[in-house]
Amino acid sequence: MRTQLEAEASVESVTSTDSGIAAMIEVTSRSVDVMVLGLNLRGLSSSEVLRRVMAEKATRECRVIVVLTREEAAATEDVLRLGADGVIVDQFTAEDLCYAVRGVVAGHMVLMGGAADRLVGWFRSVAESSPPEPAETDTAALHALTAREREILELVAHGNSTEEVAGLLAIGVTTVRTHLHRLRYKLGVRDRAGLVSYAFRTGLMVTAA
Predict the structure, then answer these.
(1) Are 163 and 173 in contact (CB under 8 A)?
(2) Would you tell me which CATH number, out of the four given (3.40.50.720, 3.40.50.300, 3.40.50.2300, 3.40.50.1100), belongs to the domain 2-119?
(3) What is the mean pLDDT of the segment spanning 37-58?
(4) Where is the HTH luxR-type domain (predicted)?
(5) How far apart are CA 109 and CA 35, in angstroms?
(6) Does residue 26 carry a pLDDT above 90?
(7) Which residues pair with 87 in a beta bridge?
(8) 84 φ, ψ to 5°?
(9) Which listed CATH number (1.20.1290.10, 3.40.50.11540, 1.10.10.10, 3.40.50.300) goes with 131-208?
(10) What pLDDT score does 138 carry?
(11) Residue 15 and residue 6: Cα distance in Å, rounded?
């Protein structure tokens, strides 16, 4: 992964390690924008490293991308609960990795290579076993959305990327990003995972499942 990142002119790779303790030392002693984290660290578990980094976010803006193998994909929900800013599951290219790094630096939640599918699947399973009761504020905000915003929210909630939404609606990628920015502002959420959660609470995920 370090080799892939170093090939990108806009990314500076600081260091790499397989030690959880060394990773914490590096991220606390340097000005690190993004940590790319695998699950198989020694000394200090990856989950503990992630938890500690998230606890420090009030004073240091380090974003964390967790990379999972196909066999580790079941951990997607756990690392998102711990606060990961991005999750990549299974194989990926150098372009994918650099896209993820730029995305989390810009403040977006990045789910790639099956991570979005797992998150959507989890929401659907919960919805089937216990249909949500939306709060009045959630319902009011939903009614305040334009038809296009609601359409984009539903497509995003079902795991479509920004580019896929643009293709399905025959509009520009920039236009979709503008709508997503407005959606996050109107609904009071900070990232794509928040949009999916909102769609689940208000029943959009249930009715379309």
Answers:
(1) yes
(2) 3.40.50.2300
(3) 83
(4) 138-203
(5) 14
(6) no
(7) 66, 111
(8) -55, 140
(9) 1.10.10.10
(10) 57
(11) 11
Q: Which of 202, 174, 206 is nearest to 186 (CA)?
A: 202
Where b means 16+ CB within 10 Å and e means fewer, 153-174 reads bbbbbbbbbbeebbeebeeeee
Q: Within 13 Å and on the Cβ side, how many CA atoms surround 45?
A: 4
Return the H-helix or E-strand segment holding 110.
Answer: strand 110-112
Domain layout of the chain by residue ranges: 2-119, 131-208
- Phi-psi category of 46—alpha, beta or left, where left has phi over 0 and alpha has psi -120 to 50? alpha
Which pLDDT score, from 0 to 100, does residue 129 have?
53
For the sheet with 110-112, list strands across it: 34-37, 63-68, 86-89, 110-112
The model's pLDDT over 48-106, given as tens digits with 9 standing for 90+, comes to 988 888 877 544 678 899 998 888 888 888 888 788 888 888 777 778 888 888 888 88
Residue 137: how many CB atoms within 10 A of its CB? 10
